[in-house]
Structures are given as structure tokens and as C-alpha cells.
Specification:
The chain has one domain: Purple acid phosphatase-like, N-terminal (Immunoglobulin-like), CATH 2.60.40.380. Helices cover 13% and strands 34% of the residues. The strands form 3 sheets. Strands 1-10-11-12 form a 4-stranded parallel sheet, with no helix packed on it. Strands 2-3-7-6 form a 4-stranded antiparallel sheet. A 4-stranded antiparallel sheet has the order 5-4-8-9, with no helix packed on it. Strand 2 and strand 3 form a beta hairpin. Helix 1 runs parallel beside helix 2. The longest helix has 18 residues.
Length: 224
């Protein structure tokens, strides 16, 4: 098997954050602990019209019109974003919920369609996403993008990565560190901006970060 590495130091542009809806967003996938597993994470923000934070589940299948398989129940981690005052008192500013679930028994080089969400109701499901399971193929080499220092200033890098994720020429993404500067800015809204901008990539291709993740970042909760 051949391996093609794409090395880059990149910058990314993002749009301004929207008001929270409570629905699943910022969907991202990562490699599982076996070659037939994938971990999928997403975020729900408190304060929206829908409350989809109670559980984590994934519906999936080989057709976008027939997603009859369900993941085992996943986990939910509550993250209260607070600002330290001069007297070292913390006042809660925003709350987000980090959801994770794992799909097992996936076939190599097979395309799957999926929605993430909660059994709380029809408003608690994401849009339909898809991924092609990594695996050895004789048709072409495995292509991996490896980079660091991904900010939110310009959009050249994200356009390139999104194109590769969409047309299938990119198989895996590894970011060495330094996600947007700083993710905790604006009461954590920069994290939300960054993840929404990256979702066309992270919802389709495994997006891996270092095992030692020092940021209060949505992706860090997915490190396995």
C-alpha cells in the first residue's frame, strides 16, 4: 500500500457564530480502536429552542434513504465555560454538551450515510452526512493531510481540504496542534466558529489530533 502525505501550514476563515439552536452541530469523526470502528462526535449548545443534550446516538446505513442501523448509546459531557474574575470567582457564561458515540463492524472502503442526535424528538437530528470507511485499496494510494497552526484568518487551506474530502481524494486528516487562536475567545464562540467551518471536512473524514490535547476543544473529547 502506498501512502501520500500532504504537508501544510494553514490558515482558515470562519463565519460569525449563530445563536444556539440546541440541535446537533459541529459533527466530526475519528478513527476507532479497531480497523472496523469509527468514533463520531458532535455538539449541542444550551439555550436553544430544542433540548437535544440528554443522550447520544447515531442512525446509519449504506443508503441515505435507508439508515436503519443504530449505534450503541454514547456519552454526553457537559462543559460549562466560565470566566475567572479578579477575585478568582468563576461565573458561568455558556454551556455546551460534547456528544460521542462509536460505530462498530464497519466494512473497509464502504460508504456509509449517517445522522447524529438524540431520541428526544425529530428536531434533535443532524443533517445527513456520509463517510467512506478507510481501508487498503489497490486502486489508489492512501492520502493523508498532515499540518499544524490552523487559524481562522484566510480560507485557502479549508477550501483545499474540503475539496479533497468531497471528491474522495483525501482519506485522513492529522492536525499536529494549535487550533485557531484562541479557542476560548469570546466565551468559547471561536471554537464553535472553527468547528462549523471545518464540518464539511470533519463530518466526512477522520480528523485526528494529538493524544495529549491541551485545549478545551470539541475535537479533544474525541481522542481515543
Amino acid at each position: 500500500m502506498q501512502l501520500v502525505l500532504l504537508l501544510a501550514v494553514c490558515a482558515v476563515a470562519t463565519s460569525s457564530s449563530d445563536e444556539p439552536t440546541g440541535r446537533p452541530e459541529q459533527v466530526h469523526i475519528g478513527l476507532g480502536d479497531t480497523t472496523s470502528a469509527l468514533a463520531i462526535g458532535w455538539v449541542t449548545l444550551a439555550g436553544g429552542a430544542a433540548d437535544c443534550s440528554r443522550d447520544s446516538v447515531i442512525k446509519f446505513g449504506n443508503l441515505d434513504t435507508q439508515m436503519d442501523s443504530w449505534s450503541p448509546p454514547g456519552t454526553v459531557q457537559r462543559l460549562d465555560i466560565a470566566k475567572k474574575k479578579k477575585k478568582r470567582k468563576e461565573i458561568k457564561l455558556r454551556t455546551k454538551f460534547l456528544h460521542n458515540a462509536v460505530l462498530h463492524g464497519l466494512a473497509a472502503v464502504m460508504t456509509y450515510y449517517y445522522r447524529v442526535g438524540s431520541a428526544a424528538g425529530a428536531d434533535c437530528w443532524s443533517d445527513v452526512h456520509s463517510f467512506r470507511m478507510p481501508g487498503v485499496s489497490t486502486a489508489r494510494p492512501l492520502t493523508v493531510a498532515i499540518f499544524g497552526d490552523l487559524g481562522i484568518k484566510r480560507n485557502e487551506a479549508v477550501t483545499c481540504l474540503a475539496s479533497g474530502a468531497q471528491d474522495g481524494s483525501l482519506d485522513l486528516v492529522i492536525q499536529a496542534g494549535d487550533f485557531a487562536y484562541d479557542l476560548s475567545d469570546h466565551r468559547g464562540r471561536k471554537d464553535d466558529e472553527w468547528m462549523r467551518t471545518m464540518e464539511p471536512i470533519t463530518a466526512r473524514k477522520p480528523y485526528m489530533v494529538p493524544p495529549v490535547c491541551l485545549y478545551k476543544h470539541t475535537l479533544c473529547a474525541l481522542v481515543m
